[in-house]
Amino acid sequence: MDNVFYLNFGLAIFLLVTGLIVKKNPHLIAGHRKYQYDEQQSRMVFFTFSYASALIIISNIFFFFLKSPGSALITGIIIMTISPVYLIYKFKQVNIQKIKGVQLIGIVTFLMIIGSIGLMIFIVARTPSYKITKEYFVVSGIYGVDLKTSEIDTVTLMNHIPEIILRTNGLDIGQIKKGYFNIEGLGKCKLLLSSQISPFIFIKTINDEAILINLKTPQTTEKLYFEIESKLN
Predict the structure, then answer these.
(1) How many domains does the chain fold into?
(2) Fewer CB within a 10 Å sphere, N or C end of the chain?
């Protein structure tokens, strides 16, 4: 889960640094008008990106305490996308003939969107790592697991999972499902599925939390299951 929040802080720092660079170097968005327009637009970039950076950090902290990394990631991407689009609109208002600055922000917008989507897909799609000891069980990544083994009530292997009724807070990309879903017969359940190939590890905690996990291959899923089971005995 920490990876997402670190990523968002990285996005916030990127926006802030970009704004500072443009503010210190107005010629980066120079056009065909007077230098005062360059300064005006460079200040606009700085304040917009600084404001966006602050919003990302505040929302990041908010969603951290709610333990909702998916919402934090989506919020960060939305802010990253809206900020340069807003700048393009404002640039045209300041000087419709200042094409070079608009083109630059347009390129930055495109790169931000593509980069953010690429990072999100990379974070979600990669196979999580796990660590199991006598004391705790940890699965890395977005919507990861961090449990004391003493909190695990039962662990079983399932050949299939019941029908998914609703995704309440999570990511669903192809066979990859991570986050909180309503499952028929199980209710609210945390899914950490890297594929739809059985078996699936079903964990029930003493706090009545339901978790379904599988890895990319049946062999690695079974290996994880037996490791968890051995630490509980």
Answers:
(1) 2
(2) C
What's the token pair of residue 212?
Answer: 């379904």
Indicate whether 146 and 84 sit together in one domain.
no
Residue ending a domain, choose from 61, 92, 125? 125
Tens of pLDDT along 132-185? Answer: 888 999 888 777 888 999 999 999 999 998 888 888 877 777 778 888 899 998
Per this entry, what is the length of the chain?
Answer: 233
Rounded to an integer, what distance in angstroms lies between the CA atom of residue 156 and that of residue 60?
35
Q: Which of 48, 58, 71 shows the shortest CA–CA distance to 9?
A: 58
Closest to 197 measured CA to CA, from 222, 165, 164: 222
Q: Please give the sequence-ordered ranges of beta strands (E in DSSP) within 149-186, or none if there are none.
A: 152-158, 164-173, 176-183
For residues 167 and 179, give the distance between their C-alpha atoms in angstroms, rounded to a whole number: 8
Q: How far apart are CA 57 and CA 72, in angstroms?
A: 10
CA 62 to chain centre: 14
* One domain, residues 11 and 93: yes
pTM of the predicted protein model: 0.56
Which tens digit of pLDDT belongs to each residue from 12-43?
787 777 777 766 766 655 544 444 455 666 66
CB of 128 within 8 A of CB of 149?
A: no
Query: Residue 131's beta-bridge partner residues?
Result: 138
Q: Are 120 and 18 in the same domain?
A: yes
Q: How far is CA 193 from CA 29, 43, 111, 223, in A?
A: 46, 46, 30, 15
Helix (H) or strand (E) holding 21: helix 2-24
Of 69, 104, 125, the last residue of a domain is: 125
Cross-strand pairs, 212 = 191, 202
